[in-house]
Amino acid sequence: MKVKVLHLITKLEMGGAQGNTVYTFNSLDKNRFEPLLAYGPGGMISPEKKSGSKIYEMKNLVREISPLKDLAAFFEIFFLLRKEKPEIIHTHSSKAGIIGRFAALAAGTKVIIHTYHGFGFHERQSFIVRSFYILIEKIAALFCDCLIFVSMANMKRAAALKIGNPERYRLIRSGVKISKLKEMQKDKTALRSLPIKNTPVTAVSLGNLKPQKNPGDFLLLASKVTAAKNDISFLYIGGGERLEEMRTLSKLKGLQDSCFFMGWTENPHAYLSGCEIFVLTSLWEGLPRSLVEAMAIGLVPVCYETDGVCDIIKSGVNGFLVKQGDVGSAAEKILELASNPSLFEKMRQAVCNTDLSEFDIDEMVKRQETLYSQILGGNL
User: Fold this and answer.
1) Per the structure, how many domains does the chain have?
2) Threshold 0.70, pTM exceeds
């Protein structure tokens, strides 16, 4: 008989965790597994509704803390689990991970797995709030058969905080289509269609415009760099709650010709292929898939030294890492790359030579399939 696996995620917005979850749902070996997908409302990704596929919207599963909705979401998930009786529930994202794991325990689901695509707690929260979230994660981890991490940094932090049993930790990278991206040629066609200056160097970022991604520092960085050198432009690919705010701020700073917030696009790689430098100002992360995509295409990264970002960038070799909030140092690195073609080319070659094979998205699915079989066979 096929193994029934339910993937549960808070919201199908544009993002690495969401994209990987949907890809796994669509790509699991149908001869061995029967995948199901459940998610909260309001996202932008529409999972492919193939014949026979089972997709459920959990109407009360929302990201915001809401005691009534959270309780209702618990029962939605509980009754779905009792109805479908999956052998495995695999949760993703913080809210779905907490409620889903408790619901799975109550429903008697045989195997419970959670993937940390990053943590729901971080240093910018108050001590009380952060401590509460860590406590809840510790409790939910007690009845997990496996905890998956996308970055070594997150795995080490979980061990330090005593979240779960390290013997049940597994590292499975967030995946992208590495071979397809490496085959992309330098092409500025899409980039030149945008309302920003035609410059020799374009620095780009990709992600949701939400506090985690810290777009305010991206804009401040653009302001500092363009004030020192006017032949560099900045592009932010991604939408979200702060899109219009960032567009307005860009105009108020007089950067409308050199810094553009374009929103979401169906083909971000067409724009990435026309850029030279990838920027990430995130305050907390798992390991951002956008960074892997940019490096696969050949962009040189200048990023905040945040969580899993440090797994892949060796500062001064295949990119630059700067401390969070140090916009001045990030600006210096971008100016250095833009003003020193030999340094840029040396780093670009190092980026192209970086081994990204463990980030292949089909390898990610295969490793999950192997993990499922090992757990069900009692061989974890």
Assistant:
1) 2
2) yes
